[in-house]
Amino acid sequence: MKLVLLGTSGYHPSQRRHTPCILIPECGIMLDAGTGMFRAARYLQSGELDIFLTHAHLDHVIGLSYLFSVLYEHPLDRVTVHAAAEKLAAIDEHLFSEHLFPKRPPYESRPLAAEVPLPAGGRLTHFPLAHQGGSVGFRLDWPGRSMAYVTDTTAAVDAEYVEKIGGVDLLVHECYFPDSAADWAQKTGHSCTTPVARVARKAKVRRLVLVHTNPLLRAADPIQVEVAREIFPATELGEDLMKLEF
Q: Which of 59, 141, 152, 240 is catalytic?
């Protein structure tokens, strides 16, 4: 199974990164719909698209307004957006207000079910995350492979979500700040490097990829991935358009 990171920044895009959007092309599964969504058409391999939203903050949903371009380049028979009911309502009322956007894109809204069947015998489950306004993480399981996506939360080894991601082959986890800004991680509901690595180690995942980095940190390694590798060696910094096998 291949996953493409269409956007790996948080808050706003930069010259190097777009905001959160992850695609599993062969299954037509997208996790979050940030500014990186405009890239989806070149990778999609299916005639249907299921978009699962962690929450409705703009950096995670603004790409829904790009759906017309995606459909122009890669026509789809069906697009379904899955999210908590109140998040779907907020998107309809605000993002697609006639005063902000002229026409609602052609997708079906579906409240996020406790378990969602996926192509090829897979299933998606979700779990709550602590973040302003509420967020969820996702776990996707297929026979012989699994992954989890955790973003917009403050990593901690005693967080309830850690057991939900136990043993996955691939953990894609936000890491907005380096350890030097741990206080800001707590204030903003985001994560810094060392706690994320400790979560991966405790959860006994096979591989950790760090995303949702701070767009104001312009260094090649904005969150000091070597610090994470000292705790969890199988750690990588996610980059836009990176392809991951799991």
A: 59
